[in-house]
């Protein structure tokens, strides 16, 4: 017997939330987000993208979905990282406007209404959430974030929004362009402003994480910075070129001074100068090879053209085809 397909009207607003081991925060997040969206009086959906969590995040989301039909659970087969999970959510979102927000409640859901109003009243395609107060962050976090945006504005371009992370609202036109880009490692805080769509800003005070541990430790912050630089600028390769030129001039000077000393008979057998020269040249060569390898690695990944993510479950498909909910045990069997 063929089950008739149910036609579901697209919502006006989609809220995309990447989640990774957020079991402790998910209840707090839903308790704050749902009243905000209900007060907007527009058709909406919440796309919760589980990024291969190892805790009970998916199980809890499926439980909450029984009481909140607008909640969609998109479960990925493995952990792919925050930005790629966000890409999965953007591809799944169906709304005319799409908001991306994290589940840790450092970005207030109450600002979504202000973003939607700004987009409609000003006729812009992007509304950035800009942090005007980061006092809840540690001094180290504030300093490193400030250094990141300072560097990005100089390497990538002045159009990079200062203190704007991944909390933003985008129109369907922007989302469609993002979904068509062949980016293997997207950094949306740089990609979105680089497209040149009309934009506005909404400021807010950044709060402390509601529960759990940060998903952006120092190692991931360094990786984000490296992806940001290599995806948008060839400056590291130019730096490698200048380092090579500088080392060549230095070695040329040492060679001339050595020949002059030999001509005057003032040469003294020794290892210090040779030792320093070898270390200098070896260090510069390794740095240049490392920088070159980062770009070649990205070219290699692009040529392979492997999928960035694989979806194990999307509860919207179950609604569309009249299927029953997938149990937690069945979901675990997909992984």
From TrEMBL:
Tagged with keyword Nucleotide-binding: no
Keywords, ordered alphabetically: Glycosyltransferase, Membrane, Transferase, Transmembrane, Transmembrane helix
InterPro entries: Glyco_trans_2-like, Glycosyltransferase_2, Nucleotide-diphossugar_trans
CDD domains membership: DPM1_like_bac
Superkingdom of this protein's organism: Bacteria
Glycosyltransferase 2-like domain location: 14-176
Membrane topology classification: Multi-pass membrane protein
Membrane keyword on record: yes
Annotated localization: Membrane
Segments passing through the bilayer: 239-262, 274-296
Family: Belongs to the glycosyltransferase 2 family.
Protein name per the record: Glycosyltransferase family 2 protein
Lineage, top ranks: Bacteria, Bacillati, Actinomycetota, Actinomycetes, Micromonosporales
């Amino acid at each position: 017997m063929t089950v008739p397909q149910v036609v579901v009207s697209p919502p006006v607003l989609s809220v995309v939330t990447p989640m990774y081991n957020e079991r402790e925060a998910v209840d707090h997040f839903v308790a704050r987000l749902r009243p905000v969206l209900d007060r907007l009086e527009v058709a909406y959906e919440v796309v919760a993208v589980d990024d291969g969590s190892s805790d009970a995040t998916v199980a809890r989301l499926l439980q909450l979905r029984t009481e909140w039909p607008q909640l969609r659970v998109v479960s990925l087969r493995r952990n792919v990282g925050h930005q790629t999970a966000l890409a999965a959510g953007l591809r799944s979102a169906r709304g005319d406007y799409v908001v991306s927000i994290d589940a840790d409640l450092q970005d207030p859901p109450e600002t979504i209404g202000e973003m939607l109003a700004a987009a409609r009243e000003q006729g812009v395609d992007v509304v950035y959430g800009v942090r005007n107060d980061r006092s809840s962050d540690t001094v180290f976090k504030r300093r490193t974030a400030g250094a990141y945006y300072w560097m990005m504005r100089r390497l990538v371009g002045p159009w990079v929004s200062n203190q704007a992370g991944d909390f933003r609202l985008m129109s369907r036109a922007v989302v469609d362009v993002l979904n068509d880009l062949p980016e293997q490692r997207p950094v949306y805080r740089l990609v979105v402003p680089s497209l040149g769509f009309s934009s506005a800003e909404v400021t807010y005070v950044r709060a402390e994480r509601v529960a759990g541990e940060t998903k952006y430790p120092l190692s991931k912050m360094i990786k984000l910075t490296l992806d940001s630089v290599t995806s948008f600028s060839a400056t590291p390769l130019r730096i490698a070129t200048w380092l090579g030129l500088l080392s060549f001039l230095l070695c040329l000077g040492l060679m001339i001074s050595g020949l002059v000393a030999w001509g005057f008979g003032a040469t003294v057998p020794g290892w210090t100068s040779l030792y320093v020269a070898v270390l200098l040249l070896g260090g510069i060569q390794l740095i240049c090879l490392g920088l070159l390898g980062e770009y070649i690695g990205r070219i290699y990944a692009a040529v392979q053209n492997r999928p960035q993510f694989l979806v194990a479950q999307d509860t919207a498909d179950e609604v569309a085809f009249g299927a029953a909910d997938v149990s937690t045990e069945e979901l675990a069997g997909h992984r």
